[in-house]
UniProtKB/TrEMBL annotation:
A GO cellular-component term linked to this record: cytosol
Source organism phylogeny: Bacteria, Pseudomonadati, Chlorobiota, Chlorobiia, Chlorobiales
InterPro entries: Ala_racemase (IPR000821), Ala_racemase/Decarboxylase_C (IPR009006), Ala_racemase_C (IPR011079), Ala_racemase_N (IPR001608), PLP-binding_barrel (IPR029066)
Reaction equation(s) it catalyzes: L-alanine = D-alanine
Described purpose of this protein according to its UniProt entry: Catalyzes the interconversion of L-alanine and D-alanine. May also act on other amino acids.
UniProt enzyme class: isomerase
UniProt-annotated binding residues for substrate: R151, M327
Name listed for the protein in its UniProt record: Alanine racemase
Pfam short name (any one): Ala_racemase_C
Pathway linked to the protein: Amino-acid biosynthesis; D-alanine biosynthesis; D-alanine from L-alanine: step 1/1
TM helices/strands, residue ranges: none
Record keywords, A-Z: Isomerase, Pyridoxal phosphate
Amino acid sequence: MTEKEPGSGAGITPPENMTEALVCIDHLLWNTRLIRKQVGETPRIMGIVKANAYGHNVHKVSAALETIGITDFGVANIHEAIELKTGGALKNPASILAFSSPLTSHIECFLQHDIDMTLCDSETLQAAEEIAAAHNKTLSVQLKVDTGMGRLGTHPSMAMELLRCMENAEHLQLKGIYTHFADSSSPGGFTAQQLAEFKRLTSEYEHAVSRTVCKHAANSGAILTAPGSWLDMVRPGILLYGYHPAKHTPLRLEVKPVMQVEAKVIFIKTVEAGTTLSYNRTWSAPTLRSIATIAAGYADGYARVLSGKATVMINGKPYPQVGTVTMDQIMVDLGTEHDVKKGDRATLFGWDGPSAEALSEIAGTISYETLCSVSSRVKRIFI
Ligand SMILES: *Cc1c(COP(=O)(O)O)cnc(C)c1O
């Protein structure tokens, strides 16, 4: 890390970290190459780096992806786009696309920072043309079509009309048309239906204007299940970070987790049979037990619903987490005999511990949420 550590400076040593998220750039590159092998050489790969690259650090992830030829990046909104663009990590990105439908007040920011703007409706189109004209600049836009996700985008029946308006708007440049799948991890027919609608519409447009436009649709699920959806560009997110979008995707790539969260053992004690631990006293020692306290809790992203259900790895051995997860610490049952010492590292999830997927299943969520929940308090270490 290049930022200045708080509490560091002339002659002052910063405190040793107690909770860290190791981010393995080799695993990220490995996963990206597997995706490239899967989709072949034709489609571009847009690196999806929204939500601070699913918690991994947007600057480090984007810079690493750029070293292997990725020049398109997708983020959630204008704020994330500006952060990436002005952060200095990218040398020369071909494009940064913000997926969110912008507020009118954002349009000027898209122009100033040269970010691709998602367009979903004619009011935004008109406002964008006026603002771009007033600045005597060209705004890059990508049309979002809602083929069934039901979140953002123009209804397919209105898309041709919007595209016609775009043709007449002198200060707007159409850089792409895209859609998003609602259920692409499942092999069912809905993805095929969405794709058919999208292809019908884009070919009607391309035929009408006698030129092609960049068309894209495939998220990680569709990269695994729907080769016909790869088109001109694919948009992997979760696969880059080493997880599959769902447990049941028929095709599995040999992706590796990019993040491992580790926290130190900060206290060990022995308790008598019947001693209770933590808030609400939900666990009591069945016999004499050794208990380790570990420096991570729900404020670090270790969900409170995991209380009493998860396992952590210490020195290669699994130990059950016991009692209620607190804000800053968890407790682990070391049993009666153990070789754990204060200062040892516990792996909460990652390549040596339970996977984020396994932990997520216990918590009733998906790996995406577990990764994004690792809070800013957890120091990212790039290895
Ligand atoms: C998040 C997102 C993706 C990536 O989804 P994954 O399931 O993580 O691959 C692709 N496209 C859009 C529009 C998204 O919002």
